[in-house]
Amino acid sequence: MLPARQWDIFCKVVDNFGDIGVCWRLACQLADEHAINIRLWVDDLALAQRFAGAGHAAIQLEHWQAQTNFSESAPVVIETFGCGLPEAYQQQMLKRSSIWINVDYLSAEQWVEGFHAQRSPQANGLVRHFFYPGFTPLTGGLLREASLTTLQTRARWEDLGLAPAADKRSVSLFCYAHAPLAALVDSLQQSAQPLRVFVPQPVAPLLASVLGVSELQMGQSIQRQQCEFMTIPFLSQADYDRLLYLCDVNFVRGEDSWIRALWAGKPMIWLPYQQSEETHLRKLEAFMQHYLALADQATATILREAMQAWAQGDWQVRHWQALIDYFPQVSQHAMAFKVQQSQQVDLVTNMVIFIENLQKNRV
Ligand code: TRH
User: Annotated catalytic sites, by residue?
Assistant: First the structure.
């Protein structure tokens, strides 16, 4: 039988990097801060190995395939983003009375509070528990490692193989293909202050097409008016955290880079993952209500207009200009939000407490 402190996490990679990005962080924090050994079952093993890098002594990556033979279940099983658990595995869970948690996607929408921590009894006798990340104390909270502050305060450009550039503002740019990139590039080129823009490898082909070059090699740099565009390889998660902390402004997307930008405490422009029926715009609105609640009116207007324009394909020169003109205010706001949000308990701590309570209530 698997020991009590050996948990299973299940991850299906729908697309992009967010699913495995969140699962890898979750696994690492459970291992590092709660001494839990993890088997991470993932359908895209190659992508998981890329995130794992040199690996983690307490995390075992397992290839989850249709024909996988599950001989035993863990006492605690974490399904992520409603990926489902295999029927054969559920039979093992029944034998062991395993606890079943589904960690869902993050949203700042109000309904999340009502759904968080609810139980859903299954026809086979198992109970699935919903665990919703979120921004308020009535949700599961946000992923935040205890070691993050130390990582940030020690971060140096040189660690990333990059030179400091005190005379320029540094920007990181991680976005989707539907972003109005040509309009952003135009506004950055005309920036009142010199810039350098770090473009990670997945975004490089999009930038190449906007700049009218056939290809951009990693590490290549192209100067256009006020702006130096520099492509960088896909970083480890720790190095990506360092980059966000060192940059002055971060464009982020999806689920995980969004929250890492929040913890960087720097002005951020978030691009939600595009969904049907404009669901992503409702998610953006809900986040802005939360993010801008304590901002002064000018700061709130600048950030709101910029995020809306970026998500709705309507970016203009004035949006970047306003961010630069009000840079001290938007920066101060980003730091204040980080501090306010850091007062809340992080997702992994909340989850461990939730699971301990479920275990106690069973005895
Ligand atoms: O890649 P994404 O677009 O992932 C998305 C979202 O999670 C979305 O909600 C989900 O529905 C979809 O996947 C399936 O963006 P996200 O969430 O920011 O994930 C990127 C991950 O990659 C994150 O863990 C940070 C990491 N990363 C690096 O480690 N190094 C890098 O250089 C970069 C650019 C990102």
Answer: 19, 255
